[in-house]
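User: New here, please read:
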Amino acid sequence: MNNKSIMDMARQLGLPVTEANIEDVSSMSQQQMEAEIRKLKNEIKKDPEKNIERILTALKKMPGQKAVAEERLEDARQQFAQAKEEVQKPFDKEDKLKYVQNRLTKINAELDMEPKTEPKLVKKEELKKCL
């Protein structure tokens, strides 16, 4: 499990996670991680004040997350527009590609025309002489 997926999982549980403390988590085995998650889920259920703090913290982060999401969306739109332009451009080396494909077809045809010879069987006595 990589650090990003560990951080995402922790955030879904409402846990404060940073790059600094994620290294401890990434070295855990799957069983240790599942046990830790069960423990934290029980803790979340037991402490309503911490739950409210987590909710408030999440609410405070939302405007920033929205801005980041809008930025990423705008980047994606720009990349999409650039990709559309790139697809419309003609392929510069189309002539060379056709030439090479035709040459490959001819070479393959020549290889198929050569008579196939059966492998020559070697007798045991001849083989022993070679060794």
In short: The chain has a mean pLDDT of 75. Residues 48-88 form the longest helix (41 residues).
